[in-house]
């Protein structure tokens, strides 16, 4: 999951009051700013959690 040091609880809380799409955007932008290692961790977490979405996004 993303709690592997990729995104902090405070960063997740910042997106807590936003609408679902906005929350996803905040998380994606936060991870992207952290660089390629964090982005790879996000992709791995998505592949583990939702194989259908990962396939649709051609992440697998």
TrEMBL record:
It comes from Lates calcarifer (Barramundi). InterPro entries: CARD, DEATH-like_dom_sf. It comes from the Eukaryota. Pfam families: CARD. Residues 1-60 form the CARD domain. SUPFAM superfamilies: DEATH domain. This is CARD domain-containing protein. GO terms for biological process: regulation of apoptotic process.
